Amino acid sequence: MLAIIDSRSTKQAINNLNKYVTDVYAFQTNGITGNSISGHPDIFIYQYKNQLVVAPNAPVELFVFFENHNIAYLKGKRDVGHELDNSVQYNCLSTSQFLFHKSGYTDSAILEINKDKEFIHLPQAYTRCSLVHLSKDNYLTSDRGVEKVLLQRGFCCFYFNPEEITIQDHKNGFIGGAVGICGKRIFFNGNIELHTDGHRLKEHLLNIGFDIINLSDEYLYDGGCIFFVNRR
Length: 232
Hints:
Blueprint lengths: L1 E5 L4 H7 L5 E5 L13 H4 E4 L2 E4 L5 H9 L5 E2 L17 E2 L3 E4 L6 H6 L4 E4 L5 H4 E5 L2 E4 L2 H9 L3 E4 L19 E4 L2 E4 L9 H10 L3 E4 L12 E3 L3
Parallel strand pairs: 1-2, 4-5, 7-8, 10-11, 13-14
Antiparallel strand pairs: 1-15, 3-4, 6-7, 9-10, 12-13
InterPro entries: DUF6873
Pfam families: DUF6873 (PF21778)
Organism: Candidatus Scalindua brodae
């Protein structure tokens, strides 16, 4: 198992993540998109299980990492840029039945491999940043608009206040960008228990069978998710 994480995560978080995987890629870009999301893997990578779709203008070093570790991936159709419409096309969330995103923003390569799934339109184009699929019909979000849609569809949706989630250049980040899931382990980029909502979320996660791993002693950091990937 390998992991991808924002290079601007704390040294403690990256070192602790290394204890659970064979290699960690510290993701970073320069000048491709806005600074706040420039180190966010979920801006450049779509993932569902072992399916990866990667922006064509992702760092060369990332493709080298994939090749060296024999990780399968597809290249997307559109480059990531600085505007909303070209910085969200890979930031969608998929399950076995559904593809969640804001209509009109998804890269065509992702739509093609998910053509047999139901597309669920959400009001938030930064979907993967804002939404976590925990298990079956159980979700976690820090966006009230996303929560409303999921509850209307009959899903269980835990709302987590985004205040106190740090991010570069903005007042607060999103919960999706501060976590990664590997099996029944949920990894937090920071310490969930420092957050005002932390103990409530911790109880919820324990109740549905998750092991909680806090990667550092800092407040939660939205680094664009932690990705866990397998070799072919």
